[in-house]
């Protein structure tokens, strides 16, 4: 990290401040892990810190240290607005553009607090933040946060609880070290987290062995009834209708990993998961190798993210969205490195 930014952050944190930590809509393990690690670090340093997330997050993250300190903006908009307005410093974690925080965007834009972005997505908005720490070759924002603490000369503050939060960010953003993890640094950081006392096996149980009967059956249903494979385009998708979600008593987080099953089919390089929501179709996209789902999501589905893991939205019906998607595939035939059908 550049010494200029480190110096600036060091000076900012030298005296006690009101600090707000924000992260993106539909917070995932990296968003929550990074935010909690930052919160624990800042409060240890004597700051008055608050975490504001735009909306609900999955229950498999609710065991985490200081989880009870997280404020969901939708539940307490007034309180959150006041905290954002009076903040001296605002950490913006795991997102690259202000619209990614949804309802929090307006108060954030108005606030005079110094905004520090720490993120690993491509193309951070350059005009929206006072300081930017952004690299695309890092496994997770949580890993960047670990590096920041070390560069600030505060490694000694990384205790077991902070280490647990960072570890959750790393494993959830790398599919437990199965993608975005070709960098030795990720493993060196992980080794340090183990030295700080984390128990990897316990954390894996807490994060991954969390199916309810309904959500496991829903996964089975996705695979037997809702999976479509397009071998000629090395592509597979899964979709769920509103009725499907109701039938299986869907709760946030229940379908978190479903998109990845498409990629576990031999030869499939592009996997997509469509879910019919109240106001839109939510889309999760994953790929292997050079095919950029970030570009695909940006171009066709008002989304973005990383080269191999992105999200998007569609505001036409589910049937029309699936048709639109299928009609796009021939255009990408070459990129998907396969024979034309
Ligand atoms: P997921 O499929 O898990 O919701 O998202 C995968 C990745 O894409 C995450 O890193 C997330 O931050 C990013 N992402 C998800 N949805 C959007 C979106 O609507 N716009 C942008 N720019 N990124 C997204
Ligand atoms: Mn992330």
Number of helices: 13
Distance between termini? Answer: 48 Å
Given the helix and strand composition, which structural class is it?
alpha/beta
Rg over CA atoms: 20 Å
The major beta sheet can be summarized as:
6 strands, parallel
Q: From the 3D coordinates, which CATH architecture of the largest domain would you assign?
A: Alpha-Beta Complex
Number of domains: 2
Strand order of the largest sheet: 3-2-1-4-5-6
CATH class of the largest domain: Alpha Beta
Please name the fourth-level CATH homologous superfamily of the largest domain.
inorganic pyrophosphatase (n-terminal core)
Low-pLDDT windows of residues: none
Overall form: globular
CATH topology of the largest domain: inorganic pyrophosphatase (n-terminal core)
Portion of residues within helices: 25-40%
Hetero ligands: guanosine-5'-monophosphate, manganese (II) ion
Would you report the number of β strands? 12
Q: Kindly state the mean pLDDT as a whole number?
A: 96
Order of helices and strands: HEHEEHEHEEHHHHHEEHHEEHEEH
- The proportion of strand residues reads 15-25%
